[in-house]
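Design a sequence for this backbone.
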C-alpha cells in the first residue's frame, strides 16, 4: 500500500540580514536638535546687538541597550554659531536672552540672514563600571532666518 503524498504549502525560511548596531548610530538618533531663538525677535535693528540662544540641555544622559548590553552615555554640547554675514562664534554656552545672554552679534547692514548653529556632542560612555570617551562626535545642524532692518536716525531737540 502506498502512502498518500502530503503537499506542503510553506515558504522556505530566509535568513534575515543582521544590521550592524553600534553606539554612534544610536546616539545620532537620540541626541536632540537645537531650536534657535533670538531677541529682539521682530525686526532687529542694524548696529544693535542681537541675542541668540538654543534650547538644548547642558548635559544629555541616556541609557542605551545594544545587543543586550546596557551602556550609560553622558554627552555635552559645544556650539558653532554662523550669523550669515561672515561672523562666527564658538562656545560651550547655549546663550540666552537679554540681558544675561553671552551669544551676541551685531549686524551692520539690513537684510535677511540665515543663522546656522552647528552643535557638536562629545562625552563618555560607561559599560561594566568602566568609563570611556566616546570616539568621534555627533553633529546636528539648526538653521533660522533673521531679517535685520535699518532704523532711521532722528534727533529731537
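Sequence:
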Amino acid at each position: 500500500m502506498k502512502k498518500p503524498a502530503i503537499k506542503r504549502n510553506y515558504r522556505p525560511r530566509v535568513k534575515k540580514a543582521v544590521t550592524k548596531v553600534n553606539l554612534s548610530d544610536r546616539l545620532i538618533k537620540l541626541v536632540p536638535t537645537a531650536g534657535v531663538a533670538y531677541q529682539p525677535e521682530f525686526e532687529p535693528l542694524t548696529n544693535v546687538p542681537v541675542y541668540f540662544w538654543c534650547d538644548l540641555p547642558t548635559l544629555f544622559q541616556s541609557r542605551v541597550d545594544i545587543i543586550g548590553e546596557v551602556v550609560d552615555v553622558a554627552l555635552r554640547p559645544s556650539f558653532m554659531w554662523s550669523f550669515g554675514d561672515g561672523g562666527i562664534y564658538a562656545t560651550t554656552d547655549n546663550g540666552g536672552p537679554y540681558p544675561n545672554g553671552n551669544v551676541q552679534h551685531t549686524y551692520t547692514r539690513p537684510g535677511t540672514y540665515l543663522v546656522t548653529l552647528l552643535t557638536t556632542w562629545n562625552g563618555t560612555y560607561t559599560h561594566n563600571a568602566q568609563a570611556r570617551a566616546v570616539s568621534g562626535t555627533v553633529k546636528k545642524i539648526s538653521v533660522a532666518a533673521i531679517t535685520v532692518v535699518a532704523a532711521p536716525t532722528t534727533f529731537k531737540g
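The longest helix spans residues 23-30.
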